[in-house]
Design goal:
Blueprint: H1 2-42, E1 48-52, H2 58-70, E2 73-76, H3 87-100, E3 118-126, E4 129-130, H4 132-140, E5 147-154, H5 159-169, E6 174-175, E7 179-182, H6 189-199, H7 221-231, E8 240-248, E9 252-260, E10 266-274, E11 282-287
Parallel strand pairs: 1-2, 1-3, 3-5, 5-6, 5-7
Antiparallel strand pairs: 3-4, 8-9, 9-10, 10-11
Helix pairs in contact: 2-6
Bound molecules: flavin mononucleotide.
Length: 288
């Protein structure tokens, strides 16, 4: 009996130890989880600033829509000496400034960029890249460590080239995918911007899963008609289509034409043909 008691006591003692140790371990795990959770909870909501230049109002309309969708702060970049509203006069002045390497003076921005995590940076495309007042802005404001989402409006395209130019000018900023729309298609802006903001996680909501494009194929006569319907009334050359890829979406059919120009260069022309009755094919952007 004594023997039994002597043997059982250390056993019970040992079990108690294991029990208490388990409790301590469980508490440590729980604390660790709590810490992870509270780290996330402490993470303040990302502060968003919409900073944009717009000469004739197209980019301003996108900027204001982003502001209301994300409840963001907004500021317009204003030139000390505004560009003339006339297209020809702006081209003239812009060309002159580019040739001389001059950048337009802008009024100092009021927002403290350092207070924001994400900057939606908007501009019209000028001469294939961001408008000149944005060159002045990025020379004078520190965007180091900031997340930048470029957005732009254009006659035919320029989101990709302007984003590349911004990236090489601001190598210490973190660039995210941008948004661009033709000024001739601003009627679809709310819809497309909504989709962009959801697809990139800035806004909650359902998105349509889009199929991949088919492989590039030879054009049929019908494809050629679609291309001409979409592009022939644009005043600048789009090249000759040499191949096409397609995909169907809930809105209609998207076409990806590869075109070839007289100088041998190739471009990508994206075209949308909506399924609504009487819809006309429209190009959505050109990537040069
Ligand atoms: C000086 C100048 C240069 C332009 N260059 C291009 C260009 O290279 N590619 C293009 O697609 N559109 C070009 N555009 C058209 C503008 O990008 C387009 O009209 C834009 O939507 C204007 O935006 P805003 O109303 O915000 O100023 C140019 C316009 C101007 C005034």
């Amino acid at each position: 009996m004594y023997f039994c008691v002597m043997k059982t006591k250390p056993f019970i003692h040992c079990m108690k130890k294991i029990f208490y140790l388990s409790i301590v371990c469980l508490m440590m795990v729980a604390c660790e989880n709590k810490k992870e959770k509270s780290d996330n909870a402490d993470d303040p909501e990302k502060k968003v600033l919409v900073l944009y230049y717009s000469q004739t109002g197209a980019t301003a309309s996108v900027a204001n829509q982003i502001k209301s969708c994300l409840n963001a702060d907004i500021e317009e970049i204003v030139c000390e000496e505004p560009y003339d509203g006339d297209f020809g006069a702006t081209i003239e002045r812009g060309k002159n400034e580019l040739e001389k390497g001059e950048k337009p003076a802008i009024k100092p921005i009021v927002s403290d960029v350092q207070k924001y995590d994400i900057i939606f940076l908007g501009y019209p495309i000028w001469f294939g890249t961001y408008a000149l007042p944005v060159s002045t802005l990025i020379d004078t404001v520190n965007f180091e460590g900031k997340t930048i989402v470029p957005f732009c409006t254009f006659g035919s395209g320029g989101l990709e080239s302007s984003t590349d130019d911004l990236k090489s000018h601001l190598p210490k900023s973190d660039f995210k995918e941008g948004f661009g729309i033709r000024n001739a298609r601003l009627k679809y802006m709310q819809d497309e911007l909504d989709d962009f903001l959801k697809r990139n996680g800035y806004m909650e909501g359902e998105i349509e899963e889009l199929p991949e494009f088919t492989a590039q194929e030879e054009l049929t006569d019908e494809d050629k008609n679609v291309f001409h319907e979409a592009c022939d009334d644009y005043p600048f050359p789009m090249g000759t289509p040499v191949s096409v890829a397609k995909r169907s979406t809930s809105k209609g059919t998207e076409f990806r034409f590869i075109t070839s120009s007289v100088d041998g260069s190739q471009s990508t022309v994206l075209v949308e043909l909506r399924s609504e009755d009487g819809a006309k094919a429209e190009f959505t952007k050109v990537i040069r």
